[in-house]
Amino acid sequence: MTNLKNLRGMVDLLPAQSRGWQKVESIALKHFSRAGLQEIRTPIIEQTELFLRGIGENTDVVGKEMYNFQDRGGRLCTLRPEGTASVARSIVQHGLLNNGPQRLWYRGPMFRYERPQAGRQRQFHQIGVEFVGLASVMSDAEVISIGWDFLKAVGLNDLTLELNSLGSNEDRNIFKEKLKDWLNQRFDLLDEDSQKRINVNPLRILDSKNNSTKELLYEAPSLSEFLSKESKTRFDCLQESLDNLNIPFKINTNLVRGLDYYSHTAFEITSDHLGSQATVCGGGRYDGLISELGGPKAPSIGWAIGMERLIILAGDKILHSESPDVYVIHRGANAEKLALNITCQLRSANLTVELDYSGSSFSKQFKRADKSMAKWAIVIGEEEVSKGQFSMKKLRDNENEVGISQYIFLREEIDQLIKKLID
Ligand code: ATP
Ligand code: MG
């Protein structure tokens, strides 16, 4: 019998990593509720048509990356490749906009049939935010700041916010024609993918990863030259608001984003530490989507962060921030009883306690205690138990505390112990 393995690009989240994920999710929960967002959870499977209409048939996602299948009832279904279309569908279906603008967040697995590599999987996870029914440029700045501050709260540094304006539909249509002409004059110099895109989705060529096409595009007409006065003013206002919020940004006039429904603001947050999968957060304004799905006119803006990329960037820091308060070390049968007893009492006092069960030598247990990044070790040996005692040792110092870092307690003195630990 052959051993079964996971499918390519589908990844197990093993115990060693799950703590980091939980930490990020708990920061998200706090951060988003402080910003007045509510969570929405939609199904993982939707009708294929939702994504054809909501993402656009000429995009990579719809054209090449979706997991489509027919269910037993003959319905065409798709494992969701992103969250926005489902959230928009749900808002329309349940008439949520009757209660006013929606400020929502979501999280969960997404599916895209791509070539797996570091930071790129076939099942991956996103955390996303959507402001639906808000047109003001202030909401663009607020949505961006929620994403930016969240990544900072997780401990990420060296991030770059790249910003562009895609203008209104009219601006973009004029630009598309100019760009098509320009590209057609250089047809033979383009890579094959870009050649195919000229007539269906010329804007996407600006986002090409092909090096010679990229070089050629330095000379291409820029969307920024085709923005109407209103679109320009709007973009200036956004930049002013971000300056006001002390969020640094870089204008990237080639930033177009992969999905069809964006207008005006488009942005990405990137990091140099991610190799070629540099984007950790991508988002923008999508004023036409809700009405495209049969809802009212509802200008909207949102972003999605790739959890796997965020976790790569957060590195070990995110694991250590959740280290236990106490690591309990013991040897011998009587010591074991007391160890379990103390562990349970400390946990009842809301302390995080890890109990070593190995029975190995004290030095080995100390090594593990150190690795766990616990602040304190409680040490119980047979001899100490016989005297009704145990000891506590400080493993690491935040401040430069001087003096003794080892304390002896009697087994009845749990209250004093807790007081010491909590101080
Ligand atoms: P990319 O250019 O890297 O393919 P994208 O433009 O297709 O990204 P979006 O649809 O904007 O990505 O999704 C938002 C975020 O979700 C990305 O910035 C990235 O962090 C993450 N993401 C997208 N696709 C994947 C994937 N296959 N595996 C892991 N994370 C992904
Ligand atoms: Mg992609």
Automatic annotation (TrEMBL):
Per UniProt, the keywords (alphabetical) are: Aminoacyl-tRNA synthetase, ATP-binding, Cytoplasm, Ligase, Nucleotide-binding, Protein biosynthesis
Q: Which domain of life is it from?
A: Bacteria
Keyword Nucleotide-binding carried by entry:
yes
Q: Name one GO molecular function term.
A: histidine-tRNA ligase activity
Name of the top EC class for this enzyme: ligase
Q: Where is the Aminoacyl-transfer RNA synthetases class-II family profile domain?
A: 1-313
Q: Name one Pfam family in it.
A: HGTP_anticodon
Quaternary organization: Homodimer.
- Check the record and name the HAMAP family matching this protein: His_tRNA_synth
The family classification in the record reads: Belongs to the class-II aminoacyl-tRNA synthetase family.
Q: What is this protein called?
A: Histidine--tRNA ligase
Question: What is the organism of origin for this protein?
Answer: Prochlorococcus marinus XMU1408
The primary gene name is hisS
